[in-house]
Amino acid sequence: MCIRKQAPRTDTAKNFSELEYSQPRLAAEKGKSNDMTGSIHVGLAAFGAAVGVGLIGMGASQAVGRNPGAATQIMVQSILSIAFAEAIVFYALFLVS
What we know:
Blueprint: H1 23-29, H2 39-66, H3 71-95
Helix pairs in contact: 2-3
């Protein structure tokens, strides 16, 4: 059985807590508090998406109740609509600086 020696580490950080990749921490070091930036916007986007998904589900269930033969077509359209409504939250998350 051959035992290999491990190569020495090339990075200077000893663990992950010493790595500096956190944006809020770097902003706090510069004297700017960046703790609550964009939280309201993301919360409102998530709330709007949740209300939209609820309304889509309500409309889809009413439509299927009125016309059970079109359940598959209604389901496809409602799934697409729900995906578009939830995409708003991802836009808000990625666009918040």
